[in-house]
Amino acid sequence: MCLMYRIFLLQTFIIVVYAQTSQIIRDYFVYKNVTRVVGFSCGGVNEDFLTMKLLTDVGMSTAIKPAGSQIDIPRYLDTDRTMGVFVDIRCPNQNVSGIFDEGTAHRMYDYSYAWLIFGNNLNDSLQSLNDSGFSIVTDFAILLPNDTNYVLYDVYNHCKMRDGVLNVTWLGNWKENEGLMINLTDSRVNRRRDYHGLRAKAAGIVLHRPEHVSLIDYLEGDSLEVMDNWPKFGHTLLSHVANMFNFTMELIEIDHWEKNDSNGPLMGTLKRDDADLGYYPSILTIERYGYARVIFPQWPTRTCFMFRTIPATKMKPWIILKPFAADTWYSIILIVVITIFILSCILKLERADDYGCSISTLITVAALCQQGFPSLSNQSASRIALIQITVFGLLVYNYYGAAIVSARLNEPLQKMNDSLYSLAHSKMHMAAEKNVFFNFLLRNPRPDVQYFRPFWNAIPESKRFISIEEGVEGIKRGGFAYHADPDDIYPSIELAFDKQMICQLTEVHLLKSELGLWSNLKSHFHEISKIALLKINTSGLRRREIRRRSARKPYCPSDEIFVSSVTIYEAAPILFLLLFGMIISLIVFGIEYFVFYTMNSKRTSDITSNIKPSTKLIIKPSIKSDIKLGIKPNIKQSIKPNMKKNIKLNIKKDIKTNMEKDIKLNIKKDIKTNMEKDIKPDIKIDKKSKILLKDKVPPKNNIILVLPEASNIFQQVLMSKRYQ
């Protein structure tokens, strides 16, 4: 009877203990607000069944395995949500250390997992743990039985790899009547933020540190030269992180980059776990995610090709038409045509000497070009028309000139698009600053980068990389594109360029990217760095450090107008227009000369052939008799006493008295009677008895041709100084 009673009490106690364990599991994971629970129990079917029932009732999917069974732990604990894991280490003859080893190897002590361990003794429970993977965010609790309740302890380690110690803190308790009571309600990061001076290793690439300056002094110094600004920026931010969490940094300097290293020496250092953090901001790429973890994108970096956009490097044929819009030109042409027509009509009504459309066109164009015009009439109507044309031409001329000046002063630079395609087709000479990441950027799979890469590879190896000083001089000369980090080249440009050159500076980015701070894949400082950098970003310290470490961009005064000489490209359309006009003039002159010379030669031959037979018999005897009777006696008498005085008087009197009457009468009678039939097609006699050709051109061979005897005397008289 007593034996049976004892067995009954033992079974009742076991059932009660099982029930309490299942309730603790349910209450704890309900408090943690997980959606899935995985357990490693001692293999009790009744206990496992009760635990699964309680967890399922509160909406949690559950899976329970014996602690010593051979299962795939990574696959069993794989999750993309928060998971609760409980392990009963009280099981006899079962080794549970493999579970903790797998958890450490696969980083299962982060935000995604909430661990609950059942033990009998605190020291024994701690000895069975593998805390190499513990960090500040580890959620790991040990449940130990007490006389009347159960006690919960919070267990964590900041970083065992850097001599961190295991910390055990009382978390709360569980009572059957009161349930779960948690005393540490603050967030894990806030209550564990003191790292107690733990030493973390931080690596970075530093290329320009002087030998006599220590690394820490160089990174913290405020040198006027903008060199190694990226590691200085990263070190400053990580220093703020270290101050927030009370740990120190052991700095590692990397001063070389192997030629065939595509990801950089910093990534290799982090992958080998030689450093916890990287204070050198590196470009975010997909390939690097297998080497390290990005903490936070910090620096919006850019590397670019820089060159000057020099205006008017190409001839613009239509620049002479640019000051006026198309409708304005149409209006001006229409007004000019109407003006020419009206002026021609006015000149015709006023009986001007020339009233054709050609002279009207010439007058109008001359007025528009401010070149003056001939006066063809003294009437008021024509003068008013000419004044109106002058005013109209003056206004058009001034508006055109003002538009030309304004357009040239305010014409924006036609800068190249920010495209590697445009740069590749520009046929400019190119070079780059020799830095550690240029070849890495060219390996980017982006289409424009891969399109540009053959153009870069076509440059000889000896001319690809030059110093910043040589690159600035090449940009200054023009027609040269130089690739550099703007923070390195901006100070040199600001010193070497004037304001106009700075405004002409054009940038084509090779690869716009973000620089981020990195940690190794298993870093225990990753989460705290992310939290601290987020606070630094929101507080404005990051922006301040970017401005502090970045070089100032050379200032371009956009409101200032730069006056430069007119280049040959701008003047070429005007010169070509002048040359075209000269060529047209020569062609027209040649045509006119050939036509007029042929026509005049033919007309002259016709006139002389008609005049000679009819006038020789009449004009020649009378002229000879008159000259002999009048001129010879007078010449003989006047030459001897006073030749100079009497020649002029006698010749004038005798010529006027004797020749005028005879020549005029004889020529008029003979021309009218004998030459009317022959000369009528080509010659007309006006009211003033002037012989005129039909085309208003005086005959090339004058009447001297038919007076050979008198021509010499006429020439001597008319060319003498006294007569003149």
Report on this structure.
It is found in: Cell membrane. The chain crosses the membrane at residues 329-347, 385-407, 574-596. By secondary structure, this protein is an alpha/beta fold. The protein is built from 24 helices and 19 strands. The strands form four sheets. An eight-stranded mixed sheet has the order 2-1-3-4-5-6-7-8, covered by helices on one side. Mean pLDDT is 78; it is low at 3-16, 614-620, 622-645 and 674-709.
Brief write-up:
The protein has 724 residues and is an alpha/beta fold.
Q: What are the salient characteristics of this protein?
A:
724 residues; alpha/beta; Rossmann fold; eight-stranded mixed beta sheet; 24 helices; elongated; disordered N terminus
